[in-house]
Amino acid sequence: MHFEGTADIGAPRERVWAFVTDPEKVSRCGPDVQRVDVIDPTHFKVVARAGVGPIRTTFALDVVFSELRAPDHASVRARGQAPGSAVEMTNTIDLADAAPGRTTLRWTSEVTINGMIASVGARLMQGAADKITQQVFACIKEQLEAPAAAST
Amino acid sequence: MAVEIGGIGHSVGRKEDARFIRGKGNYVDDVKLPGMVYLDIVRSPYAHARILKIDTSKALAIPGVLAVITGKDLVPLKLEWMPTLMGDKQMVLPTDTVMYQAQEVAAVVATERYIAADGVAAVEVEYEPLPVVVDPIKALLPDAPVIREDRAQKNNLIWHWETGDREGTDKAFSASDVVVKQDIYIPRIVVASIETCGMVAKFDKVDGQLTVWMTTQAPHAIRTVIALVAGHLGLSEQKIRVISPDIGGGFGGKVPVYPGYVLAIGASVLTGLPVKWIEDRSENIQADSFARDYHITAELAAKKDGTMKALRVKTVADHGAFDAAANPSKFPAGLFGIVTGSYPFEKAFVEVDGVYTNKPPGGIAYRCSFRVTEAAFAIERLVDILALELKRDPADLRMQNFIPPQAFPYMSTLGWEYDSGNYAGALKLAMDKIGYAGLRKEQVEKRKRGELMGIGISSFTEIVGAGPSKHFDILGIKMFDSAEIRVHPTGKALVRLGVKSQGQGHETTFAQIVAEELGLPVGDIKVEEGDTDTAPYGLGTYASRSTPVAGAATAMAARKIREKGRLIAAHLLEASPDDIEWKDYKYQVKGVPAKSKTMAEVAFAAYTNHPQGMEAGLEAVDYYDPPNLTYPFGSYICVVDIDRGTGQVKVRRFFAVDDCGTIINPMIVEGQIHGGLTMGLAPALYEEINYDKDGNIQGGTLMDYLMPTSMETPSWETGKTTTPSPHHPIGAKGVGESATVGAPAAIANAVVDALAHLGVRHIDIPITPWKVQQILKEKGVAE
């Protein structure tokens, strides 16, 4: 499945860059994240719960920043498993200056899901994945635009 | 007299129903043994992947988990692979690569069923995904990834099989006036029996005895397979007892050996405890043997006047990752050679390529005697396409071409000797019963009003009762079957058979055969099947073979008893054996009906007063090697109405005329036909399993795998003609599968007929409302 979108964020590019490439911070915007273990600045493990239709399951994801070109381009690969299911994601993030103090974030996401979730929830998957990605980027925007965030 | 006996031709109430309707059947999952533990299976989420690592530590740490078995554990036992029935091999558990989604990866044994499931969730497997091939036609391309690296042959072709006269057929096509050609896909489906597969395995470490209770249609063959697979570990055949208790539907899905069975046995040997493994519904749909999945290109050559001359069929058969079909060994495409159907083609050529894909293995005969549904569907669709091409009525075209009754026994151009038939008789009866001429008039009027109504015919010929030992074997074991009859001193009888009922009513119908042959009331005859320690060896129940083969064995064994009984009767009546005749279910002195002895009297004498020099007792065994297959047939007519708004197809009427030769129990035959028709309706309109490009099964639960319920099923109308098989001892042909074989084409033909005036020639099944609606939109007639 392929997803893409654009978010207009009320924060300067450097700050957006710092946020989206910080494993701790960006992971917290994932759906129902239970745990983040940072192994090194480009490699971390995330445990998150996600649901598609009737199935709700815990994914253990191995995430790697495969490309980091500060402050405008990042590629992230994630591979993970849940009992009976497996997920693989390749995401790209491109940042561009918009109006002063504002950043345009363009993202793409290529998601492959195998196993139980893909077979049982096939008809619901596109919608569920769409919703999750929307939530992730809405969260990133919200975190960066929050007054508390601006002061950090 | 006859009614009292309850012999052949009587609608005797099913003996087995006494327990089934009370919920007192005894299925594998009802078997509970002291100390029994449970097995559950870790399955692959990927359709094709390398296994990098299996971490069992977290699973083993769960209290109650006794063991986790992986492929590596099976290597020292030489059990990681097992042979299939088709000369291929299949993984029990993979050591490095998985080849289809839901493939078994590891097994967890635990003290409770739920703990076993927790253990499955806790096993961590690291995979490296590999390229996936789900389309068998793409799998044959030179650059396709090779699925079976373990084979010497580095491509995905399993086998090529062909039959018939290629050059002669090509010549006949060149010389013909008309050729019609159609690509037909018969989708992958599963049998979806109410009871899933399962086993209780009990290995006794002291005496090395293995007892398994197992959902199998062929218990004896399974015992031999276990001995062949695990004989090197000390499981020799006399130490193996296979018990097949009540079965909640088989339909071919309980013929193969699944890895779960081997794992349950292995787990019992490992733990020394009885182990139960029962599939859940999703596992049953996702991993068990599928049926169909034939990509057919069929061509028919005819004369302008409609005379059919030649048939050419090319098929790509998707077998999944292992060739684990359940055909007789010499027939990799089953009895697909019956594709010439009810018509006297002068020439035919058929070729099939078996292909590996990243899908579950199988290719079983889902209620259709080895690829006969695929064949019947192809020919009956093609005949309708020819009728359309020639602007002929499809009934009329069939009547013109049928093999005539006087031509039987008829040798088909593909080498099958049809035993008997009256195809025109069956079609005429179906047309009369349904009012064919009136329906055609109604259709004309409805078309004028823009209403969509169609009439579809299927005049199929089946080929069942495998089979003669000259050609038919499974793993070298000839496809005979057996019956053993013991008549007790008080005139009651015990019948044991090598076949195994899964709902067919054997306890009743086989008792009826014995009742008829021996003159004992049907209620005095007990039929037992499914225990290899007691039943005579047989190849099991599938391919409508029980009545043609074991039914014949039963009649022959009974006749052996009757012959011995004649000598005893002569002794009792103080007459010469030559003067004793069997008449009105009794032994009589010829011409002196008053001097007679019943079978019960003779049986008593067999144990209390047998003639000097004769062995005591009254028992017989028969191993019957059928001289030929049997060829049941029928003509079905289906009437459909199509909703122009939704594309919904409604089966308004369906009249089925079947001819299965001599009928043992008309009620059971009617029930078989009703069930079979519903199982023919299912793939025609509803059922299909397909896969996305990554090999994810679509339709892996009953939420997505649409089975017709009583709400979708029309009220079936049935009729019969009776053309006995000349070579079967009682003239019976078998009926278990006819309706499943014949129905899909009748329904598909009806739908195409409803849309033919719009230029529609073919629609692949299942004919879903969505497909029809797309066509209606395209033709500009959607409401």
Describe the structure.
The complex is a heterodimer of chains A (about 150) and B (about 775). By secondary structure, chain A is an alpha+beta fold. Chain A has five helices and seven strands, in the order βααββββββααα. Chain A has helices at about 15-20, 25, 115-120, 120-145, 145-150, and strands spanning about 1-10, 35-40, 45-50, 55-70, 75-80, 85-95, 105-115. Chain A has a seven-stranded antiparallel beta sheet with strand order 1-7-6-5-4-3-2. Chain A is globular. The model of chain A has no long low-confidence stretch (mean pLDDT about 90). Chain B is an alpha+beta fold. Among the domains of chain B are: about 1-25 and about 480-625, Aldehyde oxidase/xanthine dehydrogenase, molybdopterin binding domain (Aldehyde Oxidoreductase, domain 4); about 400-465 and about 630-783, 2-Layer Sandwich (Aldehyde Oxidoreductase, domain 4), CATH 3.30.365. Chain B has 20 helices and 35 strands. Chain B has a seven-stranded mixed beta sheet with strand order 3-7-1-14-11-12-13, sandwiched between helices. In chain B, strands 9, 10, 15, 16, 17 and 18 form a six-stranded mixed beta sheet that branches. In chain B, a hairpin with a 2-residue loop joins strand 22 and strand 23 (about 475-480). In chain B, helix 15 runs parallel beside helix 16 (about 545-575) and helix 16 (about 545-575) packs across helix 17. The model of chain B has no long low-confidence stretch (mean pLDDT about 95). The chains are: A alpha+beta (about 150), B alpha+beta (about 775). The interface of A and B includes residues 81, 88 and 123 of A.
Continuous helix count of chain B? 20
Structural class of chain A, by secondary structure, is alpha+beta
CATH fold field value of chain A: Alpha-D-Glucose-1,6-Bisphosphate, Chain A, domain 4
Main β-sheet, spatial strand arrangement of chain A = 1-7-6-5-4-3-2
Shape of chain B: globular
How many structural domains in the coordinates of chain A?
Answer: 1
- Kindly state the percentage of residues in helix of chain A: 25-40%
Sequence stretches where pLDDT stays below 50 over 5 or more residues of chain A: none
CATH topology of the domain at 399-464 and 630-783 in chain B: Aldehyde Oxidoreductase, domain 4
Oligomer: heterodimer
Query: What percent strand of chain A?
Result: over 45%
Decide which structural class fits the backbone of chain B. Answer: alpha+beta
What's the CATH first level of the domain at 399-464 and 630-783 in chain B? Alpha Beta
Record the strand order, biggest sheet of chain B: 3-7-1-14-11-12-13
Q: Calculate the terminal CA-CA distance of chain A, rounded to whole Å.
A: 36 Å
Helical content band of chain B: 25-40%
Instruction: Give the overall average pLDDT of chain A.
Output: 88
